[in-house]
Design a protein that fits this description.
Blueprint (H helix, E strand, L loop, with lengths): L1 H44 L2 E2 L7 E2 L3 H8 L4 H30 L6 H9 L6 H11 L6 H8 L14 H12 L5 H13 L11
Antiparallel strand pairs: 1-2
C-alpha cells in the first residue's frame, strides 16, 4: 500500500513534467532551430572558407588572423560597438525606469499610455528599422523637417552620416523600450504597495 502511494505522486510529477515540456516545446524548438543552430554553424563557418556556392574548406585560424591584423574595418567596428554599448545600454535602462515611473503615477488614461508605450516593442525589428530610416531621412523625414522649422538649417544626417548614425541606432534601441517597461512598472508598483520605494530618490 505504501509503495502504491509513493508511485502515484511520481506518476503525477512525470505527467506534470510532460505537460510543461509540451507547452514549452514551441519555444524550445524555436531556440534550437533559430538561435542555437545558427550560432554553432556560424562558429564552424568562421574556421572555413565558404562562399555559399561551394563546400566549406577548413582553414583554421586564417580568418581570425586576417581580421585582427589586416582587416581595416575591424577595429572601427569594434570601437563603434563599444560606443553603442556604453551609451545606448545606460540610456535604455534610465529611460525605461523613468517611463515606468511616469506610467505608475496616478492619472486618468494610464492603461492607454502603457499600451502605446508597449506597442512599438511588438513591431518586427526589420519593420522598425525601415520606419526609422523614413522618419529620420535627412531630406524629407519629419524629424529633420521639424528641426528646420525651428531654426536648425543643417540638421543631422542620422543614418546617412558616419557620426550621427550611431545616435540613430541609440534612438532605435529606445524605440523598443516597452519590452522592459512592464517589469520595471510592476517593481515600482509592488514597492509602492509595500510602503517602500525601489529608488531612494523617487517619492512614495
Amino acid at each position: 500500500m505504501a509503495g502504491e502511494i509513493q508511485r502515484r505522486p511520481r506518476k503525477r510529477n512525470v505527467k506534470h513534467g510532460l505537460t510543461v515540456l509540451l507547452f514549452m516545446s514551441p519555444w524550445i524548438l524555436g531556440f534550437l532551430l533559430l538561435i542555437l543552430y545558427p550560432m554553432l554553424s556560424s562558429l564552424y563557418f568562421s574556421f572555413t572558407k565558404y562562399s555559399l556556392l561551394e563546400q566549406p574548406v577548413w582553414i583554421g585560424l586564417e580568418n581570425y588572423t586576417f581580421m585582427f591584423t589586416k582587416d581595416p574595418f575591424f577595429w572601427l567596428a569594434f570601437r563603434n560597438t563599444v560606443w553603442i554599448i556604453a551609451v545606448g545600454v545606460p540610456l535604455r535602462i534610465v529611460f525605461g525606469i523613468f517611463t515606468a515611473w511616469l506610467l505608475t503615477l496616478p492619472r486618468s488614461g494610464g492603461r492607454t499610455y502603457r499600451t502605446l508605450y508597449f506597442l512599438p516593442s511588438m513591431a518586427p525589428p526589420v519593420a522598425a528599422a525601415l520606419a526609422f530610416v523614413l522618419i529620420f531621412n535627412p531630406e524629407y523625414g519629419p524629424v529633420n523637417q521639424i528641426l528646420r522649422g525651428i531654426g536648425f538649417n543643417d540638421p543631422p544626417l542620422w543614418f546617412y552620416g558616419p557620426n550621427s548614425s550611431k545616435w540613430g541606432l541609440v534612438l532605435l534601441g529606445l524605440w523598443g523600450i516597452g519590452d522592459a517597461m512592464p517589469r520595471r512598472s510592476r517593481g515600482r508598483t509592488a514597492g509602492r504597495s509595500s510602503g517602500s520605494s525601489p529608488c531612494p530618490c523617487s517619492p512614495r
